[in-house]
Known about the structure:
Helix content: over 70%
Largest sheet: none
Number of domains: 1
Number of helices: 9
Amino acid sequence: xxxxxxxxxxxxxxxxxxxxxxxxxxxxxxxxxxxxxxxxxxxxxxxxxxxxxxxxxxxxxxxxxxxxxxxxxxxxxxxxxxxxxxxxxxxxxxxxxxxxxxxxxxxxxxxxxxxxxxxxxxxxxxxxxxxxxxxxxxxxxxxxxxxxxxxxxxxxxxxxxxxxxxxxxxxxxxxxxxxxxxxxxxxxxxxxxxxxxxxxxxxxxxxxxxxxxxxxxxxxxxxxxxxxxxxxxx
Length: 234
C-alpha cells in the first residue's frame, strides 16, 4: 500500500484518497489484532490480507487497462477527479465492501466450515468486530480528509456529529448485507463453478448500481438513508 500510494500522490491521482484511508485503517486493524480484540487473530490476519488483495489488484489493473476491472471498481476509479476527497473514499468503500468482501469471505471460509454453526458464528463475530475499528476511525479520517482538501461548509461542520453517527449505521447495515451475500455465494459454489459465476455476476451488477447511484448529483446521505449502503442479492 505504501509503495502504491507514493506515485498516486505524486500524480495527484484521486485514487490516493481511498488508498490513504485504507492504509491507515489497515494499521488500525493491526493494532486491534495486537491488543487481542479478535477471537481468531490468525484467521483475521489471513482474511485482512486476502481482502486487501482484491482492491490492490483492481487498482493496479485499472492503471494499465481500465476496462479490465469489474464494473463497481471501474465506476469508482473513473469518478470525476474534481469530486471532494470524501466522495472518492465513499465510492471506494462501497465497491470494496459490497463487491470484494463477500468474495474474500468465501475465499477464507472453506465450504465445510459453513456446516459448523459454532465456527461460522466465530467468523461472523470477528467480521463484525471490524466495524468497531472502522467506527473508531471515522472522526480521525474526517480530519485527515480535510487536510488533503476535503470541503467543509459551516453546515457541514454543524452536521459533523450526525454524519459520523450515520457512517456507523451505514457500516453496520452493509456488514449484515455482506454476510447475507456471502451465504448466497456459498450456496452457489456448492452447485458448481457455473452457478457461482452467475451469482458473482449478479453481485457485480447490484454493486455497480449502488456505486452509480452514489455518483448521481444530489445529497448522498439522503440516498444512503433511502437505499442503504449495502446491496442485497435476490
